[in-house]
Every structure is written in C-alpha cells, then in structure tokens.
Design a protein that fits this description.
Gly_transporter (chains A, B, C), homotrimer, about 0% strand, transmembrane (chains A, B, C), globular
C-alpha cells in the first residue's frame, strides 16, 4: 500500500485528534474503555456527524482500517507515555491543525458532492474538523472548549470560505486551492495558539 | 417568494427556538461559535434527530435557506440586543409555543408518511418539538429543563394525541384538525407557563 | 404471538436496561418525561447508534412494539415501586447482563450482515450493548460509568471476540456459538460485579 502525501498528513491529523481524546480520558482517570472511546469519538466524531447529516452511511471510518489503526495506536501511545506525549504538545498542535485543515476541506467537498448550498458546505467542513472535540468535551462532562477558549472553528471557517471563494472566482488548479486553504487554516490556528488569540465572548 | 401563513408562523417558531439557544450561549459567555452552534442545535436539533431516526437524509434543514437565515438572524439579534431581547421574553414564549405546536405536527406527519406505528409518530412529534432544547442543555452542561421544570413536552404530547384522535375519529378537514391541535399545544404550554404548572417529579 | 426463548430473554434484558434508565431519572427527581426519555435512551440508545452508523433506518426500535411496551412497563413499574425495585437489584443485574450479552451478538451480526471488517463488527456489538448507558449518563450529567466503574464493555468485548473466533475457527452450530458467547459475557459481567472487578484506570 502506497500512501500519498495527503493521506500521510491526514493520518498525522487523525493521530493528533485521537491523542487529544486519549489525553482527556487520562485526565479524567478513565479506564481503557474510556481511553479508546474518547480517542475514537474525538478523531472520527466530526466526520461521523457530517456523514449522518448527509446520509452517507455506513459512515466512512467503519471501513477505514488505516484511520482506525492510527486511532488505536494513538490511544495506546498516549496511555503508555503520558508525560512524554505532553512534552511533544507543540508537535501535536501542529498535526492537530493540519488535521483541522484537511478535514475541513474533506467536509466541504462531501457537501458539494451531494449538491448542498455553499454556506452549508462550509458548515459541514467546520463540523467535520471540530465537532469531534465538541463530542469529547460533552461526553467527559467538560465545558466545550470549542465555544470558549480558542480560535479553532473560526480558523476552519476562514479557510473553508477561502476555499469556496478561490474555487468560484479563480481558475487555479484544485490542489493549489486546497493547499492554500489548508495552509491558511493551519496558520490561523497556530498563530492563534501562539499569540493566545481568543474570540470575544458574548456577555450580558 | 410568497410565504404562507403557516410558513410565517414556523419561521417565528424557529426564530424563538434559536433565540433560546443563543441566550443559553450568552449566559455561558460562549464566543460567536458557541452562539451560532447553540442557536442552530436548539432550532434544528429535534427535527434532525427525527430525520436521522427515520432515515430522511440529507436532513431537512441543510437545504432550508429560510430556516437557516432565521436562525442566524436570531443569534445575531440575541447577541447584539441581549437586554432588549429579555424584555420581549413574553413574546418569545408565545412564538416558542407556536413553534412547539407546529413542529410537533410536522414530526407526526413525517412519521405517518413513512408508515410508523401511531404511538411512535406521536413520539416523533414530541422529539421534533422538544429535543432541540434537550441537546442545547446537554451540550452546555445544564440539567435538561425538559425533564424537570415545565409543562413542555407534555403539551406537545397532549396536542399530538389529540391530532391523531381527531384524524382517526372525525371527518374534519386536515387543516382544521391541525389548527385545533396546535392551538391546544400553545394553550397548554402558555397556561402552564403563566400558572407555573409542573409535572410531579418522581422521588424515592 | 409466540415468543421464542431468546426473544423472551431479550425482553428481560430490555426491561432491565430501561429500569436502569428509569432509576437514573428517579435519582435525579426528573418528571415523567425524563423518566420515559431516560428509560428509552438507555434501552434503545446503543442499538440506535449502531443502526445510524450503518445506515439501517428507520432504526429498529421504531417498529418494535414489544420492545417499546417493555420499556414503558419498566418505566412505570420503576416509578411506582422504587424501593421494591431496588430490592430486586440482583435480579436486574442478571437480566441486564443477559441483555448485554444478547445485544452484543445482535450488534455483531448486523455488522457482519453489511460486510464490515471484523474488529468493527465487535465494536458495533460493544456499542449496541453498552452505549445506551453512556447516553443515559451524558444526558443526565453524570460521569460515564462505562469509562470508570465496572467490567461492563470489556465483558461485551471479550464475548464478542470469542463469538467471532468460534465462528471462524470451529464448525460448531451457530446457536451453540451464540449461547457460549452470551454465557461468557454474562459470566464475566456478573463475576466482575460480585468480586468488584475494575479495569485499571489510567493515571498520569
């Protein structure tokens, strides 16, 4: 089996998503069932919600052995090497941002493929990239980080809108448009993390 | 585009549902992502669960521009005019009750259309009308108001049962049956609010 | 209508699942809506998630009158006879374990029937047997017992793997393989309860 470069990046993204789920399970002192469940939910939750909404069943991850292996590997590695994994947090943030970028574009493309309106396609991109983390937080009883802490879904939304605009208004080749959009998502997300950007929170 | 009277009422109901989601986000000091997410989840969550259960995908709201516009408008208005919106709470309660009534009937009709047993159709009506609020509470970490505080799902259930009985045992025209049933739901809900009715809570 | 022995056991399992949901609602002092909702979610939540993931819609319980009647009966009995039901907890644990065993096998068979990879079929079995309880806990705001307290999902997983192995590597008749696997799940679960087995929890 020969992986393309993009597939390799997607696996790194999946790995990072799963590690963030596994880390949440470890922080809660869950057992190995909780570890696996949160790793999976975080990694495939967004794509699952997207597939359910558009009726693309059986949902994609059920038959995606490579993705499932990456998630299980991430859960085991996170559990065995907790403190070591925490030292690699910067790398995980980069991989997580790449995953956010790639999964956003995947989500948009799936929406376009079933003929949904453009704003809904962007929403499906954001759901694909970021609702796994939302499910992780809801299941483990945490306030959703997606709604409070960081420039995460907004990075996905910005890159998603750019992806649509470049597709509609330029004649650039598809992979250039995709690369630029993913790069913007990664950049916004990582700059946001580095400079501690936050969206204004709405108060009464 | 010419809206029918019913469609106009449905939009008011959707608007009120979305405001209640947006208000929950504001009460939690969520950011704009949380605002939009809770507005959408509250407004379309019940219908989404119904559509997923019966396999009606892509779920309805994905292609319903008018509904989506009403939700976004509700979120923005709620965020910009929080205190003003709170003063209009009585009107919002009326619109919310109308939404509960109309969405209950929509849910029942969809269940009937796919040939489900009658009690299940009523359950789908209740789910359509009230599970958006349940999702809102679960995601934002609140105890479900649906299970504790008010005559809400029960109003929907009462009107739904009436709707079925009138359809089975009278020869009244469909829109009369629908109007009577929605009116009963609105009345039970608003009387319940006004007189602070509660269902008995089950204690040990 | 003539029930087979297996169908009778499945109904007892459904009943026990629903009682555990109803008991959770009673512990939270929910009203009758909360009682019914949690009884249903606990009893049919796992199978619903499975059906949604594989696209088997309308989901099974919508047309399963016997199951729905058992759930409603369980909710009413639990509410009327709370203290008496608690005295029967040992029997309920046995029925719950039988339900866990049977629903695990049902879930695996449904995965096999749509041609999914074997490890995913086992995962669907575990989801069918134990994710209703997870939904119950998430909706009622409790930490998921599935991730912390007991040998529950692991019993399901062990029996599920055994079921697959016996099917692949022996020529035993299907109902023998099923009976052995269910018995193993019931035994592991009940021994685990009796001897207070816990999975190691992962700590930093």
């Amino acid at each position: 089996m020969q992986l393309t470069f993009i597939q390799g990046l997607e696996l790194l993204g999946t790995f990072a998503f799963a590690v963030s789920g596994a880390t949440a399970a470890i922080n809660k002192s869950y057992d190995i069932i909780g570890l696996l469940a949160l790793a999976f939910v975080t990694a495939i939750g967004g794509g699952t919600i997207r597939d359910l909404l558009i009726g693309a069943t059986p949902v994609a991850w059920l038959t995606d052995e490579l993705t499932n292996s990456a998630i299980i590997a991430a859960a085991i590695i996170a559990a065995l090497f907790v403190s070591y994994v925490k030292k690699l947090q910067n790398w995980l943030n980069v991989f997580d941002a790449i995953g956010l970028g790639l999964f956003t574009i995947t989500g948009i493309n799936k929406g376009v493929a079933v003929g949904l309106p453009i704003p809904i396609c962007v929403a499906l991109g954001v759901i694909t990239g970021s609702f796994g983390g939302l499910l992780r937080d809801v299941i483990s009883g945490e306030q959703p980080f997606l709604f409070t802490r960081e420039v995460y879904a907004v990075a996905s939304m910005a890159g998603g809108i750019l992806y649509i605009l470049l597709g509609l208004h330029t004649s650039l080749p598809a992979d250039i448009i995709q690369s630029v959009s993913v790069t913007v998502i990664v950049a916004v997300r990582l700059f946001g993390l580095h400079y501690n950007w936050h969206l204004p929170r709405i108060r009464q």
